[in-house]
Amino acid sequence: MLQLARWRVILVAVVTVLGLAFALPNFLPERARESLPPFMPRQAINLGLDLRGGSQLLLEIDTATLRRQQLDNIADQMASALRNAQPAIRYTGRGVVGDAARIRLVDPSQMTEARRALRDIARSPTGGNDIINFTENPDGLIEARITPVHLRELSRQAAQQSIEVIRRRIDPTGTAEVTIVRQGDERVIVQAPGVTDPQQLKDRIGQTALMTFHMVRDVDPADAAAGRLPPGAMLVQPYPDSGAAPEIVERRPRFTGERLTRANPSTDPQTNEFVLSFQLDSEGARIFCRITRENTGNRFAILLDNQVLTAPRINEPICGGSGQISGNFTAESANNLAVMLRAGALPAPLSVIDERTVDASLGRQAIESGGLASAVAALVTFVFMILAYGLFGVFACIALVVNLVLIVGAMSMIGAALTLPGIAGLILTIAMAVDANVLIYERMREEAAAGRGPALSIDAGFNRAMITIVDANLTTILAAMIMFQFGAGPVRGFAWTLSIGVITSVFTAVMVTQVLIAWWFRLVRPKQMPI
User: Fold this and answer.
1) Which of 109, 160, 209, 276 is most buried, by the most CB atoms less than 10 A from its CB?
2) Average pLDDT over every residue of 425-448
3) What three-state secondary structure class fits 180?
């Protein structure tokens, strides 16, 4: 008698029930979904931008700020190169004025030595042409300007880096089918399906989200009011709604948020206020411990995009590599800030030069056409399988229905978006879903033709066809993974739907069909195969 392990029956039953539960909300109106019991899933499949509309932003790199940042770094490099020269070259007036980084030699007669010390800064790290042009004055003033070619390359790199940061901010799970592509050297297009208000995107994208830690400078209030600040200090304003006060801090940060490995919203157990908990990597923890040990008793300010979040006093060295930041956060603001910090800082600010809400004028027609195509594909497959394999073809058709339910349930459960290419992947899955059944049934026919009984033929059909089934579907999964990794938008939608379909197809074609055939065999006890 055909033997079937009990765990297989339980697995098929549990997976099918879960698939029905997660797929059900897609066939109910909004009001009916809201009235479902609390233990029932309520999430339906997300439709992509081409099916339900959404928001689109055209962003542009702020090249002026990007150049200012680079010039500031160049000024630091110039000062470091002069300090490290043998012998050291004294300088003053380090800073950025207009489109140039400046530094002035105390002794203009050392211009030749300074030129030699600054020579390596002008060269590209990868070789090739100079990336900085130096000009010199007889009074010892040295100015450095970024070449136009290098500035264009910096803009191109900043746009490319911004794409991944934006994606992590607005689509941290990678399943929402957000399309983010570069346009030219300085622009980025962002398309988010289902987001009807572009302001939601701008709130997530608009901040550079660079966290820095600065020591607070004690300045007489009268001098601060008059704008008389000590060298190397700056006045920073509080972060909106943080409850902090303006502070005068060192211009150069002692520590930056690049060492953050974790940022999560939480609540302070003592005050019940929402705070932002963070964790540093091992090197960051070591540096932070040294800074807080050297400055115990002093205040340090935590800045986000050069605005004060909080400015506490260091009561003792902080060497655990973790901490929390307070700032009158709400649950939403703490979570949004955590998402931005986990995603990383933008290399340069982005300005919105165009925003629009995309109307899915063809979305309903596309869904109806896709539904019709799916129905036709399923009907043709049903007819073929029943004509080719009779009763066993009916079992394959039942498994195909279960397969469709599992695909819909899986996409609903993980929140994946369905796009037009995703519908194409669904139709392709329907057409390919029965190939495993064909392999199994043909193997059964061969075994029956060789004189084996029904039970042995059925066992051989499932066992000996598995290697071929796994090989065929594994290559499809690998191809889908490559498309998902290197594709964008529509390509990812197709790959995602195809991957889910392949997994559910193998499960239903092998497990569900096997359970149905085993039940039939025990009930009928056939003397010969019906195929």
Assistant:
1) 276
2) 83
3) strand
Structural domain includes residue 175:
yes
272 and 421 belong to one structural domain: no
Give the separation between CA 199 and CA 336, rounded to whole angstroms: 14
Q: What angle do CA 346, 347, 350 make, to 5 degrees?
A: 65
Residue given tokens 């056939």 in the structure block: 526
Q: Tell me: the pLDDT tens digits for 296-317?
A: 989 988 888 888 888 888 888 8
Written in H, E and C, the secondary structure of 31-68 is HHHHCCCCCCCCCCCEECHHHHCEEEEEEEECHHHHHH
Residue 473 · residue 502 · CB < 8 Å: yes
Residue 160 lies in a domain: no
Q: 362 pLDDT exceeds 60? A: no
- Tokens standing for residue 439: 């392999």
Residues 103, 72 contacting (CB under 8 angstroms): no
Query: What are the backbone dihedrals phi and psi of residue 422, each rounded to the nearest 5 degrees, phi first?
Result: -65, -40
Q: Which residues span the domain enclosing 118? A: 63-151
pTM of the model: 0.55
Are 317 and 296 contacting, i.e. CB atoms less than 8 angstroms apart? yes
Helix (H) or strand (E) holding 6: helix 6-23
Average pLDDT over the chain reads 83
Tell me which range, 9-13, 196-200, 375-379, is most confidently predicted by mean pLDDT.
9-13
* Segment among 38-42, 142-146, 294-298, 498-502 with least mean pLDDT: 38-42
CATH number of 423's domain = 1.20.1640.10
- Please tell me whether residue 306 adopts helix, strand or coil conformation: coil
Residues 325, 261 share a domain:
yes
User: What SS3 string covers 188-228?
Assistant: EEEEEECCCCHHHHHHHHCCCCCEEEEEECCCCHHHHHCCC
Are 35 and 133 members of one domain? Answer: no
**Domain of residue 101, CATH code:** 3.90.1070
**Number of domains making up the chain:** 3
How far is 449 from 161, CA to CA, in rounded Å?
A: 62
CA 122 to chain CA centroid, Å, is: 36
Residue with tokens 């607070």: 216
Q: Is residue 474 part of a domain?
A: yes
Asked if residue 72 and residue 36 are part of one domain, the reply reads no
